[in-house]
Design brief:
There is one protein chain. With about 500 residues, the protein is of the alpha/beta class. Helices cover about 30% and strands about 20% of the residues. It has 16 helices and 24 strands. The chain has helices at about 65-75, 85-100, 115-125, 165, 185-190, 215-220, 245-255, 270-280, 295-305, 320-325, 330-350, 365-375, 385, 445-460, 465-475, 480-485, and strands at about 15-20, 35, 40, 50, 55, 75-80, 110, 130-135, 145, 170, 175, 195-200, 205-210, 235-240, 260, 290-295, 310, 350-355, 355-360, 380, 395-400, 400-405, 435-440, 475-480. It has an 8-stranded parallel barrel, surrounded by 7 helices. Helix 9 (about 295-305) links the parallel strand 16 and strand 17 (about 310). Helix 1 (about 65-75) packs parallel to helix 2, helix 9 (about 295-305) packs across helix 11 (about 330-350) and helix 12 (about 365-375) packs across helix 14. It is globular, with a radius of gyration of 25 Å. The mean pLDDT is about 95. The structure holds ligand MZP. Ligand MZP binds near residues 57, 313, 318, 320 and 409. Ligand MZP binds near residues 317, 360, 409 and 410.
Amino acid sequence: MAFYYKEPSHTFGEYLLIPGYSSTDCIPANVDLSTPLVKFKGGENPKLSLNIPMTSAIMQSVSDDKMAIALAKEGGVSFIFGSQSIKDQAAMVQRVKNYKSGFVSSDSNVKPTATLNEILELLEQTGHSTMAVTEDGKPTGKLLGIITSRDYRISRMTGKELAKDFMTPFEKLIYADADNTTLTKANDLLWEHKLNMLPLVDKKQRLRYMVFRKDYTDNKINPLELIDKKKRYIVGAGINTRDYAERVPALLKAGADVLCIDSSEGFSEWQKITLNYIHKNFGKDVKVGAGNVVDAEGFNFLAEAGADFIKVGIGGGSICITRETKGIGRGQATAVIDVCNARDEYYKNTGIYIPICSDGGIVHDYHMTLALAMGADFLMLGRYFARFDESPSDKVRINGTYYKEYWGEGSNRARNWQRYDLGGAKKLSFEEGVDSYVPYAGSLKDNVASTLAKVRSTMCNCGALNLPELRTKAKITLVSATSIVEGGSHDVILKDKFSID
Ligand code: MZP
C-alpha cells in the first residue's frame, strides 16, 4: 500500500510570523543577513558564504553575466544558466570574473546612420541617455562619437537626422586609454573635465568601457559586495548530469566559484554519479550544490552523495506546471520544513552543516522571511529577478505598461531537456514550464534594497539579529483562509479604483 502523509502540504502564503520580544538594539541597521553557501564542519567557517540570502535562478531568462554582476554587488550570487553551449556559458562566467568594478561595457550603441527617431526609441527602451556611436553599432566597435541629450533638440529637428551629423565626434571627446587607466585615474578625469561619462578606447580607437560619474558614488555604496581574494565578483554556474565531464573543467577554467546541478528532480542516481565524478576528478574543493528534493529521504541521499548545498522545491516555481503535468511535487513551505529538520538531524549526527536553498515559489517579499525562519539558509529566485533591468530577457510594452519576458527551463522556448532527463532520447518529451510576462520593476539594486529592508524589519519584530537567531526565535502559525483575507486591505474602496473628474 502506498505511503500516505498525515498532513496536507502547505505553502508560504498559508503562514504568518508572530512577533517576539524586541530589545532596543533590535534595529534593522544591526541585522546581519550573511549565510553559508556551502557545507562546513561545526566550529569552522564555510569556504563560501553569501552576504545576503539570495541567489538567482539557473534560467535563460534570469541569470547571465549582467545579472551576476548586479547581484554580486549587492552580496548575492547568480548561477549562470547551463542550457547553452559550454563555450557560451564559460564566456559568461569569464565576463563576470573579468569585470572591473566601475568599468562598464556600453549597452546602448548605434551606427552612424541611425536616425534621431531610432535613437529616441532606443532611449525609451533602455532608459540610457548616453549612447555610443560605433562604426558597426556594436559595444566594442570603433568609437566615432557619443550622443547625449545635449546633442539634439527634438522641437527643432524632424527625427530623420543621422547620428553622424549631430553626435559629439570622437575628435572632440575627452577619452582615456583602456589598457593604462585605473578607476581612480578615470574618476579624476571625470571630475577634472566635468564629464558625466568617460569612454575608454584601445589603440585602434575601439570602445572597451565607459566610466560614469554616477557610478562613482555607487562604488562607495556596495558595502556587501561579494568578492573573491582577487577582488573579483563571485559567480556560480548551472551544470547537468550529462555533459559534466566537459562542462565542469571549462567552467572552472573560466573562474566559476561554485556549481549547481540543475535538475527538476534530484533524488536520483544521476546526481550521485555526477557528484562522485566531479569530486573524484576535480577535487573536493570544487563546490557543487545538488537538488531538487522535497523530503528528508531526498536530503539524506544527496548529503551522502557529497552535495555541498541542497536545493529544495518541486513544482512551486511561478512558471512551473510539473504538478499539473506529472502530479509530483510538494507545497514549498512543508518541503522546506521537512528538509531543514533533516539537515539539523544530519548536523547533530555528523557535525557537518549542509546549507539548504529554498528554490522557487516566492511571491511576496515576506515569503522570503518565512522561508528563512523555517530553516532555509538562502533562497533561489526566478520570477523576482526576471522583472529587473539586469535580467537577460526583453522588456516589452503592452497596452502602455512595461513587462519583461520570463520563461521556464522546461518550456518549449528553453528546451532544457537535460534538466528533466531520466535517460533515453535527448529531447524534451513534453513541456513542464510556460512562457510568460512579468511586470517590469526597475533596477535590481532598488528592489533588493526594499525587499531586504522588509526582511530586516520583520526579523527585528521577531527579536532576531541574524539568520540562525531567526530560525530559533521565530514563532510561526498556519492561518485560516478567512484570516488571509483579513491580512490585505479589506472593506474599503481603494482610491486608485476611482477616477475623479
Ligand atoms: P520562481 O522564483 O519563478 O517561482 O521559480 C524559479 C524556479 O523554478 C527555478 O529556480 C527552478 O528551480 C524552477 N523552474 C525553472 N524552470 C521551470 C520549468 O520550466 C521550473 N518548469 O520549474
